[in-house]
Structures are given as structure tokens and as C-alpha cells.
Amino acid sequence: MSSYYCPFCSSRYKFQKTRTDGVLICGLCGDPLMKKSILNTKQIFGLLLASAFIAPLLAMFVFVIKDFTNEKKPSISQSLVLMSFM
User: Fold this and answer.
1) Structural domain of residue 66, as residue ranges?
2) How many folded domains does the chain comprise?
3) What is the C-alpha to C-alpha distance for residues 75 and 54, in angstroms, rounded to an integer?
4) In this predicted model, what pLDDT tens digit does every residue of 30-55 receive, in sequence order?
5) For a designed S-S bond to 24, which of 33, 48, 58, 83 qualifies (C-beta 3.0 to 4.6 A apart)?
6) Are residues 45 and 59 in the same domain?
7) pLDDT for 58
8) Partners of 2 in the beta sheet?
9) Is-contact 16 4, C-beta < 8 A?
């Protein structure tokens, strides 16, 4: 899926017209519109780079939460032994 933009006009204005031959033109200046893809190579590279830094952080959170939920509570007999040493 792609969007169209005018390379000469401001990106705030999105007036599109169609010529008789089917080409989309800018409603302000009349120049043909350029096709722009949703993701370009810079954005894909940036997403990969950001995920490389964020993935270890997310893995750390998962392991910490898993460790807290699996933590065993001491039994009553162990706590009595610990209290007798005090």
C-alpha cells in the first residue's frame, strides 16, 4: 500500500485531482504526485536497530517476573529453626 505526495507543496495540504489520462496531480500546484511507500529502508533499519536494544530489556523483565513467581516460601519448620537461633 502506498500514499501519494507532492514534492513541491507542504505536506499539510493533501488535495488530489485526477487528470483525464488517470494521473494523480496536486490540487494546489498541478504537478504530478509522487508515490511513497509506507516503510522505506531507513525505517526498516531503524526498527531492527531499536528492537536489538529493546529485546534484552524485555527478556530481562520476563526472567525477573518468572523468578519472582517461582520463588518458594520457607516452610514453617524452617522458620522455627531460624527463630530458635536468634
Assistant:
1) 41-72
2) 2
3) 39
4) 888 888 878 788 989 999 999 999 99
5) 33
6) yes
7) 93
8) 37
9) yes
22 Rama sector, left if φ>0, alpha if ψ -120 to 50, beta otherwise: left
C-alpha cell at 43: 525505517
Strand ranges (E), 1-86 = 2-5, 16-18, 24-26, 34-37
Q: In whole angstroms, how far apart are CA 59 and each of 12, 44, 49, 52?
A: 40, 22, 16, 11
Rg (C-alpha) for the chain, rounded Å, is 30
Q: Indicate if 8 and 31 belong to the same structural domain.
A: yes
Amino acid found at 39: L
Q: How much of the chain is in helix, strand and coil states, percent to nearest 5?
A: 45, 15, 40
Q: What is the pTM (predicted TM-score) of this model?
A: 0.46
Cell of 73: 516460601
Q: Please tell me whether residues 12 and 29 are part of one structural domain.
A: yes
Work out the average pLDDT over 16-40: 82
